Structure formats: C-alpha cells, structure tokens
C-alpha cells in the first residue's frame, strides 16, 4: 500500500492526471498522509492543480484534512495564490475559518503571502476578517507587517478593524508605522471615509 501512496503523491506533484485517476480507481486512498501529514489534496492545492484537486474531491478527498501543523488544503491554496483551487475547495465544504496550530486561518495566510485574489475570494465567501491567531494578530496585522498595500486596502474596504491589538498591544497601524510607513496613507484614507 505504501507503494500506491507514494505513486499517488508523485502523480499529483508531476501533474499526471491520468495516473492519479487510475490509482484512485484501483483503490488508492485520496486521504493518505505522507511526510508532515500532507495529503494528495494538499499538494494539488499547493501546485494549483485544479483538475487533480477536483478528481481527488470526487473520490472523497477530505477538503478539511489537517497536516501535522493543522493546515488544510485551503491554507495551501491561499499560500501559493491559487484562487481557482480555493474556490473549488470552498464549493466542496472546506472550512473557510479553519485554524492551523498557530491560529492562522486561510485568510491570515493569503494576507501574509500577498495573495490578493484569494483574499478577495475568501472575503466573498464570508471569512472572518478579524480572526485572531495565537498571538492576537488579524489578517490585517499580517498584511501590514509584510507591506501588502493591495491587501491592506481590500481588508479595510471590507471592514477590518485597524485598531485591533495583538498580544504585544500593537495595532496594524502601529506595525505599518514601524515596518512599512508607506501604508499609513491607506489607513488614513480609509479612516476618513
């Protein structure tokens, strides 16, 4: 069985949909876990393999399976900027506010990694815009820390709390002031509306 599991992971990674389909038809487990608890669906989300992700989901792949760090396939779609895979996962019941062990939701990941398209998609589907991670950081904290102006603007337009304090007592505005002062004009323009 280990051999079939390894073949399935390799087929997903190299984007061999024919082999993935054959392996699934012959009983390969779409929820098999490999190193770090990653599933084939995690890899499909990571590499943006929407057709393979769809096939895995059709064969009962779990859109909410968690790896050893508590991340789901939706976290990976957010990390690697794949809105098409993210939407497919959401359509198949992915938990939009699933928290990894560090408390990050897929929206935290999209904001941190600069994925504007996934950020907009997650907001459209009702992601908790002010969700806090284990350190009290919201997605807006993450976007401000990484200097993602486009995401800061989108989050503020959708009602993100710019005065939310993390465990260090810092707001997203404080973080922008310290790390990316060029973002302050976005905060100021949104506050004046």
TrEMBL record:
Pfam families reported in the protein's UniProt record: Ank_2 (PF12796)
InterPro entries from the UniProt entry: Ankyrin_rpt, Ankyrin_rpt-contain_sf
Naturally occurring in which organism (per UniProt): Acidianus manzaensis
Keywords for this protein: ANK repeat, Repeat
Gene3D superfamilies the record matches: Ankyrin repeat-containing domain (1.25.40.20)
Coiled coil: none
Signal peptide: none
Positions of ANK repeats: 36-68, 69-101, 102-134, 135-167
Biological-process GO terms, alphabetical: protein K6-linked ubiquitination
Stated name of the protein: Uncharacterized protein
UniProt GO molecular function: ubiquitin-protein transferase activity
């Amino acid at each position: 069985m280990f051999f079939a599991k390894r073949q399935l992971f390799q087929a997903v990674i190299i984007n061999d949909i024919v082999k993935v389909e054959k392996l699934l038809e012959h009983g390969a487990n779409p929820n098999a876990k490999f190193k770090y608890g990653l599933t084939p669906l995690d890899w499909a989300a990571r590499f943006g393999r929407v057709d393979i992700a769809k096939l895995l989901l059709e064969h009962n792949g779990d859109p909410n399976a968690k790896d050893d760090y508590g991340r789901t396939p939706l976290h990976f779609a957010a990390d690697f900027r794949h809105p098409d895979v993210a939407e497919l996962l959401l359509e198949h019941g992915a938990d939009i506010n699933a928290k990894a062990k560090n408390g990050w939701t897929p929206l935290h990941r999209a904001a941190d990694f600069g994925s504007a398209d996934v950020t907009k998609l997650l907001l459209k589907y009702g992601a908790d815009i002010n969700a806090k991670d284990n350190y009290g950081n919201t997605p807006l904290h993450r976007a401000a820390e990484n200097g993602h102006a486009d995401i800061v603007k989108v989050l503020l337009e959708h009602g993100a709390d710019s005065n939310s304090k993390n465990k260090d007592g810092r707001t997203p505005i404080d973080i922008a002031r310290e790390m990316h002062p060029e973002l302050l004009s976005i905060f100021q323009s949104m506050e004046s509306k």
